[in-house]
Design goal:
2 copies of one chain form a homodimer. The first copy, chain A, is α+β, with helices and mostly antiparallel strands and 283 residues long. Chain A contains 8 helices and 12 strands. In chain A, the strands form 2 sheets. Chain A has a 7-stranded mixed beta sheet with strand order 7-9-6-10-8-11-12, with helices on both faces. Chain A has a 5-stranded mixed beta sheet with strand order 1-2-5-3-4. In chain A, strand 1 and strand 2 form a beta hairpin. In chain A, helix 2 packs parallel to helix 3. The longest helix of chain A has 18 residues. The two termini of chain A are 22 Å apart. The interface between A and B is large, with 73 and 72 residues.
């Protein structure tokens, strides 16, 4: 009989064969020389809707990877795109997709370095590899007890955007994330630890705490939400926000929100009570 | 009405937005600093058989990318693996796949740097990014008139292996290519141009000639074939051989076969007659 397995078990298994520069597969990118590198796979029906407009879809596929570069404090350098395309895809669709690629390649000053396209009988799949450059990579493992915890913007927009999409309404908060490149570069000199929030604040902060061997306490009233009237826990355990989460030994960082403190021990507290690190896990 | 499009048109469209370091998307890898990088996507039913054994499949996915590094005269440095896995995949399958990865990571001295796995309703897809290092990248565009043309081994094994696979018989020539890493490194000091043969000698030599703005003449009796009794044209226009094709201003290279000469003009001649650059094109 065969045994079922999930994504986290796979990563755990791969960790045992991962290379030195992979940083134990714990960070948003691997680091080699002055470069950092990341790779994300996006599949129709899992990470986006099959009928999403190709112009923004191309940009989203780039941007979720550029967000990983931002999390490492890196400037975008180059991208490679792998695409498995349904056989009946139209030239119009591809032209719009390429226009989207071109727009973001120019906006973020990144080079298209290569890629591979395949036609097949299945759904659309995109695989993007992004390379960045940084003099000082930001890691998840650097949080110090006493650090303040910051986020770069309102959380929950990705979650609320997804709810709208499920009702058939377009929502750019889900369709077009905004990688915090400039902030990431600035944080090289400020942050002790950093990552991007792709699976929700609680789950991702817990990952940062585990990597740093610390705990964290959050103050709900200080957490900026996309909809202050909507449910807090749903907005901080949904996916696709792509804001930066970082810790620093200072009281304020321009444009960012201080939401809590790094403490000794382990686990997360919200308003003084332990909270489960619930987050967005595909399937 | 929508318009159909093929893989070559896509590459042509992307070329207009490709970056400087992409080398116009004409080579086996992009070059940046001392590094080269490549990315290949493999899909079940297109590049391999859905029931291929996972141990060798993992190694094939790595090796077709390592072959691109060999073509640039690069040493393997790191790989990132993206995988879209069918939801009903078993832990046993994944364990065998990971064992294959581990075996080749060790054999080729390459680091696993990262990756991404997704479960979905469709077929198995693998996307591998490979990074190499070289002091002097070998390009397709360096062939000189008067160069001899060489290949690193017998051609047609991939094609004949595929025919066996289609009859339900295993064939390692198709299932497990052998990237010519050591030869690629040696060729840095010897070859004027180089690439790997993934789509057949004729099609790939024509690409090399176009990149170098030259023509080529081949002597059929000098072309080493996997089966000297089987059809020549089929064996030099089938895919999946992954031997190196290179040109050099010398008469012999140890372990390699001299198969013809670079000439002025354009197009390919076989035994004095023009021959169409037929090759293996997916779909």
């Amino acid at each position: 009989m065969s045994t079922k397995i999930n994504e986290l078990q796979i990563i755990e298994n791969l960790r045992s064969i991962a290379g030195r520069d992979s940083l134990g597969l714990l960070d948003d990118c691997a680091v080699f020389g002055e470069y950092v590198i990341t790779k994300d796979v996006l599949v129709a029906g899992v990470h986006f809707f099959p009928d999403d407009a190709p112009y923004n879809l191309a940009r989203k596929a780039l941007r979720v990877n550029l967000s990983d570069l931002a999390a490492m404090g890196a400037e975008p350098f180059g991208v490679l795109i792998g695409a498995c395309l349904p056989k009946d895809i139209s030239a119009e669709w591809l032209n719009d997709f390429n226009r989207g690629l071109k727009a973001d390649i120019e906006e973020f000053g990144v080079q298209l370095l290569g890629g591979d396209t395949v036609f097949h009988d299945g759904a659309l799949m995109l695989s993007v590899t992004a390379i960045g450059k940084t003099s000082k990579p930001l890691l998840r493992s650097g949080a110090k007890i006493g650090d303040n915890i910051f986020v770069s913007g309102a959380l929950g927009g990705g979650y609320l955007g997804l709810q709208n999409k499920l009702k058939g309404r377009g929502d750019l908060r889900y369709e077009l994330p905004n990688p915090r490149i400039e902030l990431g570069i600035k944080l090289r000199e400020i942050a002790n630890s950093c990552m991007d929030i792709s699976d929700g604040l609680l789950l991702d902060l817990n990952r940062l705490c585990e990597a740093s061997k610390v705990g964290a306490e959050l103050v709900s009233a200080q957490i900026p939400l996309a909809d202050m009237a909507a449910d807090l826990l749903e907005q901080i355990s949904g996916g696709d926000d792509y804001e930066l989460l970082f810790t620093a030994d200072c009281d304020a960082v321009a444009g960012c929100y201080k939401i809590g403190k790094i403490i000794s021990g382990q686990g997360l507290k919200l308003d003084g009570k332990l909270v489960a690190p619930k987050g967005y896990v595909h399937n």
